[in-house]
Amino acid sequence: MAVAGAAVLLLALGLVALMVVRPSSAAPSDQRPASGPAPAGSSVDAGFARDMSIHHQQAVEMSFIVRDRTDDEDVRRLAYDIINTQANQRGMMLGWLELWGLPKSAAGPPMAWMGHTITPKGDGSLMPGMATDAELDELRAAGGRDAEVLFLRLMTVHHRAGADMAQAAAGSADTDAIRNLAAGMVRGQQSEIGLMADMLKARGAKP
Fold this sequence. Notes:
This protein is mainly alpha-helical.
């Protein structure tokens, strides 16, 4: 299982590297950091970039898992969209932290930039919406419709929390780069939440 997890992570990181070298044409130029002073390490901009990079990493991992556990074209298409979009966004956020000369990991607990106090539970779920290690293991062990329904449920919860984080950053960040990216995340993830609700209904399952 550890080998499979490492393979998924390597695939995700490889995809990010390719996208950083050759950015997607869907990424508008106004998402690049504007000239001017870099945000502080304790800023909303830096905190959001760090935490959402972690949040996105798990979404990419779950999408790789379900991609190999179903032949359903709609679920596989959604998984590919999440992989491409969130790996691309993650690459941009890590790149901005590099350009700003800021560490890519926080010294303190996650989501402090939102004024939240997160106490790690030790179950792998580092932030709201993230799946636990047990839930990821369940997804890896599932197949067919069971994998599809579990993925759609886990990703719906993941997206809801991600959209809340992005909404906070869109309204509080100092840089245009983070505000614009976060606002786009809110729109994209809310749209996919609606899509996943329809997909669950089509499978006779509740969100």
